[in-house]
Design brief:
It is built from 4 helices and 6 strands. It is an alpha/beta fold and 137 residues long. The model is unreliable at 1-16 (pLDDT under 50).
């Protein structure tokens, strides 16, 4: 019984590490597509993405008022704390209910989903690389 439990724990820790790396890679790719800088200041205000911080080497995690881009799932953070023009939702609900959000990155049915809002991108004068065109709506 102990061996089975240890095996399950070992497998789950390996899988969570892979998911953390995937989340970090997606966050970094989105941030670099939106902002053309080598080192980006990012505010990450989502508990589900906290574990990915250690894998995102090209991102510097800072407070909301110092960030180039904010990843959040909370409406109040956008209106009260954040002074940046780039807010990226980490929930579909926030994406649908806040017109100032540039896009969304969220998990649905075990898969990552990415959406960019064309109107907000145009308003901010952001041109995404061609490989992101299928994510724009």
């Amino acid at each position: 019984m102990k061996i089975l439990l240890l095996t399950i724990l070992a497998i789950s820790s390996l899988l969570s590490s892979d998911i953390g790396q995937l989340k970090a890679q997606i966050l970094s790719t989105i941030a670099h597509a939106l902002i053309d800088k080598d080192s980006l200041n990012v505010c990450l205000d989502d508990k589900d993405l906290e574990s990915s911080k250690k894998y995102a080497k090209s991102l510097k995690f800072v407070s909301c008022n110092k960030a180039d881009i904010v990843f959040t799932s909370k409406v109040k953070d956008i209106n009260m704390k954040c002074k940046t023009g780039l807010v990226f939702a980490t929930s579909y609900y926030l994406y649908r209910h806040s017109p100032m959000v540039v896009g969304a990155f969220f998990w649905q049915k075990g898969r990552p989903n990415i959406i960019f809002r064309k109107k907000q991108l145009e308003k901010l004068g952001i041109k995404l690389p061609r490989e992101f065109s299928k994510y724009v709506e």
